[in-house]
Design the sequence.
């Protein structure tokens, strides 16, 4: 007789929900509502990025130099080449780099309810420790199930009043939006634990994601000038040969430059989730992405001392 594995079903459902939320954010961005089509909102301004993680971009003068050189090429091209370029005017042209979507503040519509809940927490004004991020942070609140972090949180961090502003499926641009629209106001945490960026790997390069993380760090510094920030390296995910591992390694090498030993403290604990072969054991992350109770225990043990020190202002 077949037996229904409730635990496995719960695990699959929860992981799929996080994935679908990310996907729906992309669909929403690509398919605006009729109302949005009639009255388009102003495009968000890119968030400021720390110089340590900024992607080099051409200046206006450099772009003009390139355009001038291209114009000279067109003037000297043979008739056949000029005819092709006249027929297809966009085939060859000097294009500035497109905007980095990871630094354009934007909230996916499915996250609005959780954003509002976070605003209510912020308005209470008494949180002393802020957790910011995506599902991996969000699931610190899970009391049970395959991704239960709350028992571990209560065990190790119960002495502090915590605001958990993690939202499953969110990205750097989502955290930026949320901070700029109320989640960065109303309270004054002593310390912040941030890990964000894994959901950006589906659509952004490592360099773009590092810029996004840097923009979030800069926004946190502006919003909470008295807080110390524990910036975590993006956790490993997938199997050892998964290309996303290399992307995450590149992100972490870049965002490590944000460490200043004063307001920003970078810590990469990813290796603690891996065995000697680089594999993530199922009892640590059953879906190779989200920590389970054992994974949260590893996480808590790794950050408890640094957080204690930062909460004391050291």
Sequence:
């Amino acid at each position: 007789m077949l037996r229904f594995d409730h635990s496995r079903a719960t695990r699959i459902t929860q992981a799929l929900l996080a994935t679908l939320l990310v996907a729906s954010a992309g669909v929403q961005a690509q398919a605006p509502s009729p109302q949005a089509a009639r009255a388009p909102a102003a495009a968000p301004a890119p968030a400021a990025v720390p110089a340590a993680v900024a992607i080099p971009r051409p200046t206006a003068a450099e772009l003009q130099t390139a355009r001038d050189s291209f114009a000279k090429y067109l003037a000297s091209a043979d008739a056949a080449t000029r005819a092709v370029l006249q027929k297809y005017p966009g085939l060859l042209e000097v294009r500035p780099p497109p905007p980095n979507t990871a630094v354009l503040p934007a909230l996916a519509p499915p996250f609005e309810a959780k954003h509002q809940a976070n605003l209510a927490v912020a308005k209470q004004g008494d949180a002393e420790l802020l957790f910011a991020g995506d599902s991996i942070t969000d699931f610190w609140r899970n009391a049970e199930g395959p991704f239960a972090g709350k028992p571990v949180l209560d065990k190790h961090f119960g002495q502090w009043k915590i605001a958990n502003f993690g939202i499953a499926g969110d990205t750097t641009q989502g955290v930026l939006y949320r901070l700029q629209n109320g989640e960065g106001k109303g309270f004054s945490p002593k310390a912040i634990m941030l890990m964000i960026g894994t959901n950006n790997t589906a659509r952004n390069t490592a360099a773009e994601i590092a810029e996004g993380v840097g923009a979030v760090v800069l926004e946190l510094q502006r919003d909470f000038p008295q807080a110390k920030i524990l910036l975590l390296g993006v956790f490993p995910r997938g199997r050892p040969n998964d290309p996303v591992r290399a992307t995450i390694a590149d992100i972490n090498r870049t965002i490590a430059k944000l460490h200043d030993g004063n307001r920003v403290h970078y810590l990469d604990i990813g290796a603690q989730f891996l065995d000697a072969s680089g594999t993530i054991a199922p009892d640590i992350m059953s879906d190779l992405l989200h920590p389970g109770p054992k994974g949260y225990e590893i996480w808590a043990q790794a950050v408890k001392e640094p957080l204690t020190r930062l909460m004391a202002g050291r």
